[in-house]
């Protein structure tokens, strides 16, 4: 039997040394091929990112608004600069009667006041917002837009979620839904007033409580999710709502932080994100991009934004009068995808470019032809439409801000405007 002593004879030592060197050589070549495959996958990732960037740039070139940005008239708001204001006015132009109008996200009333001023024929205006601070500002601004003594406009503002649009409009006037609304606007996302107030917890760059509620009366805050929701739910939110590739490592760090008492301020969350973001990732300031995605994910979850949006788009479309328009400004790809898909679903086009579903064909075709004639004549902003049975999507591609607007108001960079018109 071979013993430890017999293995230490010079011959066996030579044998074991040569097998060690063979094994070492094997390990070195494995390490080489590992580093080669890491470099290849890094290169592949970089190429994919470059390709994604090229597609985004091309898409942006195609969708940019060619309308001039009117800074003198609308850009000096003390509270919030309305995004794509000229483009929204084009959707509801003074040449088209707008007797009943609803602003689902009134904010500081930048869009609302300009639209009210442009439509002296307006009879009913309804403005909604879940944020009492915004609504106070909006009320003052709307009142001053109502200073025409000959105006018979009845203006109503509600501290309410737009998901209740149907019941709110019935409360205003039981016949309102029968007649229908001529124009509805949704300008999603946050107002500058919300982002600039650290106490609301929306800002990545200012320390404040982990709140993130649009509606200060709502019960769920961002810190409840971070400190007590199941681990897998935290991960799902970061992955699905933030589209954050480092979600698993962040999920683990967030759950670990619970052992030390949890996270209670945006500063603590940012520190955790910094510690989880490798320096090599997206440059030295990479953590800001990660933090932006994490904050977006939490905000969406706290305010149940995506489900609310989808349900409300159907409700808003139901509220429209024949020929009425629903315009939606979204600020990130998840919102925009919902707006795009829901509009397609409403007009019954499957998958985007397919043919409309055809029943009552002749009658419908006449209506659709009439819409096309109306629009072709005087609405230069309508480039390509998608026609369906119940409505027409007036923006086959969304409208994005002009370069000039983007330079003056960086917050509008990701904005996309989509419009649907009821048959
Ligand atoms: C981007 S701002 C609107 C700015 C406004 N268009 C203006 O010109 O001043 C979005 C507003 O929508 C409100 N909001 C967000 N979700 C809402 C919801 N589900 N129901 C009602 N208001 C909501 C926010 O509180 C915020 O004030």
UniProtKB/TrEMBL annotation:
Gene Ontology CC entries for this record: chloroplast
Amino acid composition bias (Polar residues), ranges on this chain: 31-40
InterPro entries given in the database record: RsmH (IPR002903), SAM-dep_MeTrfase_MraW_recog (IPR023397), SAM-dependent_MTases_sf (IPR029063)
MF annotations from Gene Ontology: rRNA (cytosine-N4-)-methyltransferase activity
SUPFAM superfamilies tied to this protein: Putative methyltransferase TM0872, insert domain, S-adenosyl-L-methionine-dependent methyltransferases
UniProt record, GO biological process: rRNA base methylation
Basic residues biased stretches: 41-64
EC number: 2.1.1.199
Region described as Disordered: 31-67
Gene3D superfamilies in the cross-refs: Putative methyltransferase TM0872, insert domain, Vaccinia Virus protein VP39
Record keywords: Methyltransferase, S-adenosyl-L-methionine, Transferase
NCBIfam families xref list: 16S rRNA (cytosine(1402)-N(4))-methyltransferase RsmH
Family named by the database record: Belongs to the methyltransferase superfamily. RsmH family.
PANTHER family cross-referenced by the UniProt entry: 12S RRNA N4-METHYLCYTIDINE METHYLTRANSFERASE, S-ADENOSYL-METHYLTRANSFERASE MRAW
Record-given protein name: Putative 16S rRNA (Cytosine(1402)-N(4))-methyltransferase
Species per Swiss-Prot/TrEMBL record: Rosa chinensis (China rose)
């Amino acid at each position: 039997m071979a013993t430890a002593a017999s293995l230490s004879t010079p011959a066996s030592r030579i044998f074991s040394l040569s097998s060690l060197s063979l094994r070492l050589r094997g390990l070195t070549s494995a390490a080489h091929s590992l580093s080669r495959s890491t470099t290849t996958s890094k290169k592949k990732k970089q190429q994919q990112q470059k390709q994604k960037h090229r597609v985004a740039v091309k898409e942006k070139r195609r969708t940019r608004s060619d309308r001039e940005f009117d800074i003198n008239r609308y850009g000096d708001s003390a509270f919030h600069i309305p995004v794509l204001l000229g483009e929204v006015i084009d959707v509801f132009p003074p040449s088209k009667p707008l007797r009943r109008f609803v602003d689902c996200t009134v904010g500081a009333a930048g869009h609302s006041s300009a639209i009210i001023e442009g439509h002296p024929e307006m009879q009913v205006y309804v403005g909604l917002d879940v944020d009492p601070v915004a609504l106070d500002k909006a009320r003052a601004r709307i009142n001053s837009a109502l200073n025409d003594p000959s105006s018979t406009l009845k203006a109503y503002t509600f501290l309410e979620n737009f998901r209740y649009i149907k019941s709110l409009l019935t409360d205003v006037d039981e016949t309102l839904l029968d007649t229908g609304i001529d124009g509805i606007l949704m300008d999603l996302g946050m107002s500058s007033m919300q982002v600039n107030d650290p106490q609301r917890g929306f800002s990545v760059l200012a320390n404040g409580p982990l709140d993130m509620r649009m509606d200060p009366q709502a019960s769920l805050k961002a810190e409840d999710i971070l400190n007590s929701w199941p681990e897998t739910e935290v991960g799902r939110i970061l992955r699905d709502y933030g589209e954050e590739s480092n979600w698993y490592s962040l999920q683990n760090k967030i759950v670990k932080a619970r052992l030390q008492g949890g996270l209670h301020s945006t500063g603590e969350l940012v520190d955790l994100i910094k510690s989880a973001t490798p320096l090599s990732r997206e440059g030295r300031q990479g953590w800001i991009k990660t933090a932006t995605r994490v904050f977006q994910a939490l905000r969406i979850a706290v305010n149940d934004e995506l489900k609310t949006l989808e349900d409300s788009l159907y409700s808003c479309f139901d509220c429209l009068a024949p020929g009425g328009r629903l315009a939606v400004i979204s600020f990130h790809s998840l919102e925009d995808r919902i707006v795009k898909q829901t509009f397609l679903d409403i007009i019954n086009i499957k998958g985007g470019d397919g043919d409309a579903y055809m029943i009552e064909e002749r009658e419908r075709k006449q209506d659709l032809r009439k819409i096309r004639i109306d629009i072709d004549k005087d609405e230069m902003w309508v480039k390509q439409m998608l026609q369906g049975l119940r409505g027409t999507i007036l923006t086959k591609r969304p409208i994005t801000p002009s370069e000039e607007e983007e330079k003056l108001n960086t917050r509008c960079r990701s904005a996309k405007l989509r419009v649907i018109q009821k048959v």
